[in-house]
Amino acid sequence: MEQHEVRQLLQKVAAGQIDVEQALLGLKMAPFEEIDIASLDHHRGIRQGASEIIYGAGKSPEQIDKIAHSLWNSGQKTILITRMSQEAAEYFQRDIPFTYFAEARVGLVGQKIAPKHEGYILVATGGTSDIPVAEEAALTAEIMGNRVERLYDVGVAGIHRLLAHVEKIMGARVIIAIAGMEGALASVIGGLADCPVIAVPTSVGYGTALGGVTALLSMLNSCASGVSVVNIDNGFGAGYQANLINNMESGK
């Protein structure tokens, strides 16, 4: 159950539409459920505003299917599955609504949450090779109820491509800047934007890119004050954090 669902339930009690016992029944589900392969946190949506998300890497197709169905049957109607393999997607039982986004390796059970307001998250990449990580970030944010704009292949090797979109950059509530190689995109965007910038280093690059470590260190040492950094290839973490920022009470 999400926070807004609890609020609606309490509003019905206040309006006399349901009694206290009915409301109590709606909240009575145990805070977690133990199945043989996992302990499912059903009250995470109440505590944090976002329900439990399934990390698919390292789980078998059967485990992912079972966890997702258990969450769905408990009443969670938007379930995000990250790092989901094609094999797991093909195995997934389609008796509940399911969509697979292959490029991002993201699965969605149910529907995306409708955006709560007009503010948007901008997801920008240095190159086309960064798009799989960018799509993980963008889809995470969209599924969690945000408007997302995409700005791909605007890296510093051709900085005029980025500068052609300054209006879109300045209009964003949050920007996710995703780049490999030397990771310079985040600093450049951070010097243009008046909103928080979340930098995502990717493992894209030649030898001394060191699987994303060079971009990570570059982003951590950014001279742009509004830049924060998540882990290498962590599009999900960036999308989740951007969702939290975009849905704070104050904003554009």
Automatic annotation (TrEMBL):
Pfam families: AIRC (PF00731). SUPFAM superfamilies: N5-CAIR mutase (phosphoribosylaminoimidazole carboxylase, PurE). Residues 119-251 form the PurE domain. GO terms for molecular function: hydrolase activity. It comes from the Bacteria. Signal peptide: none annotated. One of its GO terms (biological process) is 'de novo' IMP biosynthetic process. PANTHER family: PHOSPHORIBOSYLAMINOIMIDAZOLE CARBOXYLASE-RELATED (PTHR43064), SLL1489 PROTEIN (PTHR43064:SF1). This is Nickel pincer cofactor biosynthesis protein LarB. It comes from Anaerotruncus colihominis.
